[in-house]
């Protein structure tokens, strides 16, 4: 397929998937409100009634699984609080991603891509914090991680549920062009430019003296991809057995479990407890 034809097809997929999601799950005025920096609490709270109940529930669950260091940010009582905890950009992305997932529910391949995207987001945030990046930078890594395979997910849903006769969308086409569709979604939803940079980088980027933030997202993405390939679509993590008297509710292991449970993806996370290297 010629490059021009490929990009025409990418645009066709983008428009069809946006239309499909908007038509049944995501009204345009939801995005408009979340794009408005002057939107007040009442306007944001009113969005709750316009979002599919199951998606709204997941947003609350994800917001309730947010931590600051090892402390929960507190119980979420309103949709406005959930959006404030998540952030406007992440809320938009989560609504769209969850809507896509809902559209392709029941399909193992679509669910696996969704699980991998969510796992990449969680790992990117965690790695960024552990590598010394500030919280704001870690949030950027988390957002970009969630979008690394959004183009792949859209193409799969389109191929399987929208235009089942479209034979040009084979696995090679998806592997080659899904980053470009992801970059288009960044522009479509008015997301920050750094997200597009990270999606299109597709490689480990080093700055003068440290791994760059795109590099952190790439490490997370590759770690998740490798684990899914090796362990039957599961993120396998080895965690040290907590020391006696440790508050296990605040360990990284507990935070990981909470985050995966919030989206109903428990089966995609497998944690193996190992002794501390100092105990061996």
Structural features, described:
This protein has 280 residues and is mainly α. It has one domain (3-279): Hypothetical protein af1432 (Orthogonal Bundle). It is 63% helix and 6% strand. It contains 13 helices and four strands. It has helices at residues 3-24, 28-35, 41-45, 53-64, 79-86, 88-103, 108-130, 135-147, 150-162, 171-188, 193-201, 213-230, 252-262; strands spanning 67-68, 71-72, 235-240, 269-274. The strands form two sheets. The protein has a two-stranded antiparallel sheet. A two-stranded parallel sheet has the order 3-4. Strand 3 (235-240), helix 13 (252-262) and strand 4 (269-274) form a beta-alpha-beta unit. Helix 7 (108-130) packs antiparallel against helix 8, helix 9 crosses helix 10 and helix 11 packs across helix 12. The radius of gyration is 19 Å and the shape is globular.
């Amino acid at each position: 397929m010629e490059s021009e034809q490929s990009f025409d097809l990418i645009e066709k997929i983008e428009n069809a998937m946006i239309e499909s999601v908007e038509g049944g799950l995501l009204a345009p005025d939801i995005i408009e409100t979340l794009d408005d920096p002057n939107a007040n609490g009442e306007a944001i709270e009113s969005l709750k009634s316009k979002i599919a109940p199951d998606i709204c529930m997941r947003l609350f669950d994800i917001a309730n699984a947010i931590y600051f260091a090892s402390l929960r940010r507190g119980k979420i009582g309103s949709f406005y609080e959930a959006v404030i905890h998540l952030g406007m950009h992440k809320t938009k992305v989560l609504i769209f991603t969850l809507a896509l997932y809902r559209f392709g529910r029941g399909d193992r391949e679509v669910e696996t891509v969704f699980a991998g995207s969510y796992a990449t987001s969680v790992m990117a945030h965690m790695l960024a914090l552990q590598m010394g990046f500030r919280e704001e930078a870690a949030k950027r890594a988390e957002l970009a991680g969630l979008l690394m395979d959004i183009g792949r997910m859209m193409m799969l849903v389109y191929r399987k549920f929208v235009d089942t006769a479209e034979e040009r969308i084979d696995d090679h086409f998806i592997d080659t062009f899904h980053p470009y569709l992801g970059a288009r979604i960044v522009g479509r939803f008015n997301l920050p430019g750094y997200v597009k940079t990270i999606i299109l980088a597709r490689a480990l980027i080093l700055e003068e003296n440290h791994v760059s933030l795109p590099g952190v997202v790439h490490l997370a993405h590759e770690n998740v991809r490798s684990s899914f390939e090796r362990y039957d679509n599961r993120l396998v993590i080895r965690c040290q057995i907590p020391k006696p008297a440790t508050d296990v509710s605040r360990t990284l292991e507990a935070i990981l479990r909470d985050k995966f449970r919030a989206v109903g993806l428990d089966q995609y996370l497998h944690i193996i407890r190992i002794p501390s290297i100092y105990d061996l």
